[in-house]
UniProtKB/TrEMBL annotation:
Membrane topology reported for the UniProt record: Multi-pass membrane protein
Predominant cellular place of this UniProt entry's protein: membrane
GO BP of this protein: cysteine biosynthetic process; sulfate assimilation
Keyword Transport on entry: yes
Protein's UniProt name: Uncharacterized protein involved in cysteine biosynthesis
Cited Pfam families: EI24
Organism, as annotated: Chloracidobacterium thermophilum (strain B)
Keywords: Amino-acid biosynthesis, Cell inner membrane, Cell membrane, Membrane, Sulfate transport, Transmembrane, Transmembrane helix, Transport
Subcellular localization: Membrane
GO molecular function per UniProt: high-affinity sulfate:proton symporter activity
Annotated transmembrane regions: 64-86
Domain of life: Bacteria
Length: 127
């Protein structure tokens, strides 16, 4: 139970670390900004196209089937767009993940990452 509560407090410790170390903000702000930009573009373009396609697809069906099919297709559209957004987020954020993992570790020790941590250790930390 202690491990669960300690893990649940990690977001608060991360926020406290970001407040104390403003140099880390760029490692957070850039990936978040990129994901927001990609998300807005994806949802603005593909969502509109998806709604048009769904309207065209259910045209001519009986009302109750069209309503049910439209609902299922809209849910499928949102899930698919969410998955695509996550995949883009992983690819666009990948250069920052290693830095996000290593930098707080080295800040606590006061050493440079390459002098203290081997590349294998950094890779284990980043995973």
């Amino acid at each position: 139970m202690y491990a669960f509560l300690r893990g649940a407090g990690c977001p608060w410790r991360a926020i406290r670390l970001l407040v104390r170390q403003p140099a880390l903000w760029r490692y957070v702000a850039i990936p978040v900004g990129l994901n927001l930009l990609v998300g807005v573009v994806l949802y603005a373009t593909l969502l509109l196209a998806g709604f048009r396609f769904i309207a065209m697809l259910v045209e001519g069906w009986p009302a109750w089937i069209a309503w049910l099919l439209r609902g299922l297709l809209v849910i499928t559209l949102f899930v698919t767009l969410g998955y695509v957004l996550v995949r883009f987020g992983v690819v666009l954020g990948a250069p920052f993940y290693r830095k996000n993992a290593v930098k707080p570790c080295t800040l606590g020790q006061g050493y440079k990452a390459h002098a203290v941590l081997s590349s294998q250790t950094c890779d284990k930390i980043a995973v």
